[in-house]
Amino acid sequence: CDLKGLQDCAFKLASFNSHFKGEFLSSLGQFLGKPELTNLELQLNEMKKLDSKFLMNFANQISHAQTLRSIKLEFYDLPLTESGLGVLIEEIAKISYLNKFSFDIYNRGTPSNTIYETITKKFQTLKSIEELELKFFNAKVITNTCLMGLAKSLEQIQKLNKLSLIFGYTDGYSEEGIIRLAIAISELKLLKRVKLEFSLSEFTFYYFSRAIPYLQRLEDLHIRWTKEYNSDAIIPEDTIIMLFRSFAYLTKLISLK
Question: Rounded to two decimals, what is the model's pTM?
């Protein structure tokens, strides 16, 4: 496969058999080895027949793509493991010119809490990243420990100027975890653009109202709450008023959505 000058590479694959894995990795490796390749998008859907070593092998392939500047990975219903995801993120962190990373995970089952706790801690290795987008739609396993680990990781990504966090339905957040995350965001001097999307509940709404004043460096804030599935939660009027008053602390804000 000789595609001279290839710069952008996007794959979307769903439900292939495990015996096809070797051929896929071999073909993908050819693309990742192209010296001109700068952008990679890979979406893998419903491939539960893949064994746990798949992520390890993919990590080995992507470690050779040193010219990449942007990576977008979407993993839907894959056999994820702590060790596989950990190695994958570590290898991605070694790509010298990478400045944009998007990671989207969705599992209709209930993966272990420790998988998310492990990868949120591993993000601290992405020290050269300027733009980071995380989407965890099965967020019932996003615990307070995950938020604390993510906060600690963000503190290490000092070049970050754009951050997007999109988490699905959960009731596992605490005020401590959300405020700790807000403080970590506030300490990143180059970070001006932030998008936050969390599930809506009375408690998370209140916690974010308390956390927003820490985001005083921001110029662009996109914030959205989505109603929890089958939830009858009603946000008290005084909590809504508190939220709007908290925006007054963001004196550098140019755009609010």
Answer: 0.86
